[in-house]
């Protein structure tokens, strides 16, 4: 017969062994649980990205496929198919997608604007302007916004407000059908001219992207004035100083003002159904579908 002390020792050892095995089991279960969650999050993130890519592809298809009912070869404006907003996200089995297309040529073209226009832009020092003009003469262009803070004297804190007003993608003129009041102001338009321009573009319902929107179909001052007369009456006339500014913008080499566009921004988003994981893509695409800029978050 075993002594009581020996039995007690064996029992204690058994309890310790059981506790150790239990703790190992708990640790292993916790580790497996964490691994599963990590894999699950990775899977959901990949799914959200695929949804965002699908949204981008849909937007690119809309951009590069003309609608015979709404699209016009003479101009580019929000009333056309590319400018139509989705009323609600598209529902898929794995989640939802949405996208928005905006005109990148509603902004001042940094790679084409003369020096006096660049000096009006946020962030640009005179040294930065001089560098852009010098590089341009040598055939060099800024191809990505990230290159701007490398210019001498450029204020990097102004990069975000700058990119709302200017673009490094493409060299086309600012589209009069899409330019914001801020962009028009940078081009030298008076406040008195911008008000009727924007009212005309919105049309009688004063809503952008609807069938009654006013469109400037001719790249010339006379065509702009004729269009405004059709909306405000034959008594309307452009102020002479604004006429001169507009003439200069339309006739510049290359033109700084036009009515057509060839570069657009696509903002695409995918959201998974199970965990509502979100992925977003911001891309710059030309009218032929070539991607000029890509950012994911």
Please tell me about this protein's structure:
It is built from eight helices and nine strands. It is of the alpha/beta class. The chain has one domain. The strands form three sheets. It has a five-stranded antiparallel β-sheet with strand order 1-2-7-8-9. The protein starts with a helix and ends with a strand. The mean pLDDT is 90.
Summarize the structure.
This protein has 297 residues and is of the alpha/beta class.
How far is the first residue's CA from the last residue's CA? 73 Å
Largest sheet: 5 strands, antiparallel
Percentage of β-strand residues: 5-15%
SSE pattern: HEEEHHHEEHHHHEEEE
Number of domains: 1
Query: Rg, please?
Result: 30 Å
Strand order of the largest sheet: 1-2-7-8-9
Overall pLDDT score: 90
Helix content: 40-55%
What general outline do the C-alpha atoms trace? Answer: elongated
Q: Which stretches are low in confidence, meaning pLDDT under 50 for 5 or more residues running?
A: none
Number of helices: 8
- Annotation, overall tally of beta strands: 9
Category by helix and strand content: alpha/beta
